[in-house]
């Protein structure tokens, strides 16, 4: 089981009231909400291995070089030496180091890579996995990794993690008209304002799905643009031709990396905390209460 950790703690932050606080009054709604998420996932799905995948760079420079608008609307401040500063609610930012410390003390593998997003870590680990993989994320971008043949599916939280939609290729074909491999092409054609991806003007989701059904993939669509006999409307041919510079670079931006260099780590789900004393101190300092106990109970069970 691979967790898109930031996606989940953002959901926890907005789903759990900020009246959930530490003894000193500091909000810990994201911390406790995430612990409850993980407890429920372990209890319901019994993974052998679980990895909390992290964003070490939420807006990698190599993606921005190709498409400068990539996530630009979420930048608070640009930095020369490291990742740009992302717009994050004031009371969430201080909770992230607490989440990291608690996961480390429990012994849940927490993995990221310099210069890469959590999506890229997930893509690399899913590609290396010998057995089935459940990817837990609220980000539809990761639908591109769905692969029935390899047993890779996405568990998408519809409401908390008590209601998860299991996304396989049948669901993707029903909803979007593509399989997992085709989802990235669909996404880059239609664009995604939430990620600052412009897409091809005039090509929405339904048109993109029809083009992919007719021509197979992005390469097939681009070949059709140059083939006068291909069945494209004049408007589609013009729009796609004008978008060629974007379409030349968009695949590298939209498709998750599959070759991220990884540190060595133990993905096995711990049965008991790695560092009980540190965890006890964290639990007292931040008032983790029943959330932590539920997770420890799920791990021990």
Describe this structure as you would to a colleague:
The chain has 301 residues and is α/β, with parallel strands linked by helices. It has 13 helices and 8 strands. It has a 6-stranded mixed sheet, sandwiched between helices. A two-stranded antiparallel ribbon has the order 3-4. A hairpin with a 3-residue loop joins β7 (152-159) and β8 (163-167). α1 (5-15) packs across α2, α4 (95-106) runs antiparallel to α12 and α8 packs across α9. The chain is elongated, with a radius of gyration of 21 Å.
SSE diagram, text form:
Elements: E1 2-4, H1 5-15, H2 29-45, E2 51-53, H3 61-66, E3 75-77, E4 85-86, H4 95-106, E5 109-111, H5 118-128, E6 133-136, E7 152-159, E8 163-167, H6 169-176, H7 180-190, H8 205-215, H9 218-225, H10 234-242, H11 244-254, H12 276-286, H13 289-300
Parallel strand pairs: 1-2, 1-6, 2-5, 6-7
Antiparallel strand pairs: 3-4, 7-8
